[in-house]
Amino acid sequence: MLEAMKQGQANAIITQTISEIERYAITHFQKEEFFFQRFNFQGSAEHIKEHQDFREKVSSFKAELRTGEVTLTIELLYFLKDWIDHHILDIDKQYSECFRQNGLK
Ligand SMILES: [Fe+2]
């Protein structure tokens, strides 16, 4: 995305990135939430709330993209960096022991 911004191609890349993020959210969140229920994971309510907030934020990015909001790319980069640092590298790790104990690798 940074390279695309430098070359003035941000909107094309951002549209593609948002589609990929939506696809990731649909498949990945569904799998996690399925196993939360199946294994009765204790932290599921807070975790599912983060997924929902993520979906809503992605929807608002899509709406901003349609209006040509210029700060969108930087905002999206920060949002994704925060998602990776906070959710994937921290929050998602919290269910790994529960999943492992239930036989999931
Ligand atoms: Fe998650």
UniProtKB/TrEMBL annotation:
* Record flagged with keyword Secreted: no
Task: Please give the superkingdom of this protein's source.
Answer: Bacteria
Q: Which Gene3D superfamilies match?
A: Hemerythrin-like
Pfam families, per the entry: Hemerythrin (PF01814)
PROSITE patterns, A to Z: HEMERYTHRINS
CDD domains (alphabetical): Hemerythrin
Q: Where does the record locate the signal sequence feature? A: none
Similarity-based family? Belongs to the hemerythrin family.
Q: Report the protein name in the record.
A: Methyl-accepting chemotaxis protein
Source species, please? Aquipluma nitroreducens
